[in-house]
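Forgive a beginner's question, but would it be possible to get any protein sequence you like and the tokens describing how it folds?
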Amino acid sequence: MAVEVHDVDVVEARRRLDAGARLFDVREQGEWDEVHAPEATLVPMSELVARWQEIDGGEQPAIVVCHSGARSARVVAALEQSGVPAVNLTGGMVAWEQAGQPVVRAAGAEDAQGEPRHEH
């Protein structure tokens, strides 16, 4: 029996995060190191079998993010099958950044306002 994966866009994800939901990033360490949401918790997809029980959205379904939304959709399906309520962040970190949400970049890659540094 296929599990239906529920998606949320960045606006809905932000609303849920502000209301206490938790964000889990399932990309690998190198991707995380390059850029990630400051409120996210890293649980790489490659470690999911050992660490899936760490994913808990609190009172709301956990929000799961990857680079573009494909890996996180697979993780959400697996979590739902395991009884862990979760939703997929449509468009992943690409959409998150495009929507102007805050990010943490590798050392020296952003200024104090979270904006990318532009060298002139």
Observations:
- The CA atoms of residues 5 and 77 lie 6 Å apart.
